[in-house]
Design a protein that fits this description.
This protein is an alpha+beta fold. The protein has two domains: about 1-45; about 105-225 and about 255-355, Ribosomal protein S6/Translation elongation factor EF1B (Alpha-Beta Plaits, 2-Layer Sandwich). It has nine helices and eight strands. It is about 50% helix and about 15% strand. The longest helix is centred in the N-terminal third of the chain and has 49 residues, at about 5-55. α2 (about 60-65) packs antiparallel against α3, α3 runs antiparallel to α9 (about 365-375) and α5 (about 165-200) crosses α6 (about 270-280). The strands form two sheets. Strands 1, 2, 3, 6, 7 and 8 form a six-stranded mixed beta sheet that branches. Strands 4-5 form a two-stranded antiparallel sheet.
Length: about 375
């Protein structure tokens, strides 16, 4: 039967849309599909390369693999609510593993001798014994490794043998002592390793490290501070006592970190200092320190046109040029760093085993942490 005019138009329309679909597939959809596949392959290759250089967190992977990542259907059924609760619970487990891992890597690994034995009746005497022993150990360590130590008392005053102090004060003093020992040890390692590198490279060894001062400071409770825009800020107000003169306001959060700061003054060459700076921030070494302030000066500042050298003399001292090991190529560094602990964990440990002498170490190894915190 011959097609009428309407049927012909309908047939032509179907053919047109079929051809349009083919054009869309071959020139747009197929290209997009191939682009997505190529991006996926590139992403997989990138992931394989990253794994070579970055540690994988097995506990986090276990938490993620066990989590219910499917989205529940919309609706108000009890099954749907239970599914959402499980999804939220799994997400919280993953977050908790991440937070605990960061806490474990940031906490200073305090030595066991910083804890007062349960049978020790005089905490002050115990601290005094540890102080005397550590002073001798540090002097011997520096002397053996050719590191100068100007203050062989490492910033601690002499405590009389009969001094009576509380257990809490004694523990803080022991931790301050440990932080000082840690910083000195890092200085020694930095100088020794730099010296060995220079020898292997066939260079004349110039590694130098001199600890000019060690000043342990009072422990400080700290917490995060956030700057937020001041809604009442008025650029026309110049009185600093008026809150409207400040463009940003500080919002402080609860203090949950206890820092044990120590201030040191170093004289060294720049390569040794760079090695030292790397070790201060090395989480895997168990001696992770937070750098609170850093000042670097050079003897050449005294010859500058824009300075009278006061900043240099304030750190190096007025008679530094008369010292036999003074070198114009050395830098002088004033650094304040701190080891961290977390009061909540400390209170928990006090309640679970300090008095019985069964305190668990404040820092776990990476493997211990992953084994303990893997989400089942």
């Amino acid at each position: 039967m011959p097609l009428d005019r309407t049927d012909s138009r309908l047939l032509k329309g179907l053919i047109f849309f079929a051809l349009l679909g083919l054009v869309f597939y071959f020139f747009i959809y197929r290209d997009q599909t191939e682009a997505v596949k190529k991006s996926s392959d590139d992403f997989s290759k990138t992931g394989e390369e990253l794994v070579k250089y970055y540690d994988t967190n097995d506990s986090l992977k276990a938490a993620y693999d066990s989590a219910d990542k499917s989205l529940p259907d919309a609706g108000g059924s009890r099954a749907n609510i239970a599914s959402r609760q499980k999804a939220y619970s799994d997400a919280n487990k993953i977050l908790q593993v991440q937070l605990t891992g960061k806490e474990a890597s940031s906490r200073m690994s305090f030595a066991t001798w910083t804890e007062i034995p349960s049978d020790e009746r005089e905490p002050g005497l115990y601290f005094n014994r540890q102080l005397s022993k550590l002073r001798e150990d540090i002097k011997s360590l520096c002397r053996t490794n050719t590191v100068g130590l100007m203050d062989d008392k490492i910033g601690f005053k002499d405590y009389p043998g009969g001094t009576t102090i509380s257990s809490e004060v004694a523990r803080d003093e022991l931790r301050k002592l440990f932080i000082s020992q840690t910083v000195v040890s890092l200085c020694v390692k930095a100088r020794t390793e730099t010296f060995e590198d220079e020898r292997k490279e066939g260079k004349k060894p110039s590694a130098f490290m001199k600890i000019r001062a060690v000043n342990p400071q009072k422990p400080a409770d700290t917490g995060p501070v956030v700057l937020k825009p001041n809604p009442e800020f008025n650029p026309g107000v110049t009185d600093p006592s008026n809150p409207k003169s400040k463009a940003y306001l500080q919002q402080r959060y609860p203090k949950f970190i206890k820092e044990y700061p120590v201030e040191i003054v170093l004289q060294c060459d720049y390569r040794t200092f760079l090695r030292f700076l790397y070790k201060v921030r090395d989480e895997k070494a168990g001696a992770f320190l937070v750098i609170r302030s850093l000042t670097i000066v050079s003897p050449h500042m005294r010859d500058g046109k824009d300075t009278d050298g006061a900043d240099f003399l304030a750190i190096a001292g007025p008679n530094v040029e008369k010292e036999p090991d003074f070198n114009w190529d050395h830098i002088f560094v004033k650094l304040s760093a701190a080891g961290m602990d977390f009061p909540e964990r400390m209170e928990e440990e006090e309640a679970t085993g300090t008095k019985s002498g069964k305190r668990e170490p404040l820092r776990m190894s990476r493997k211990e942490f992953e084994d303990k915190n893997a989400v089942k």
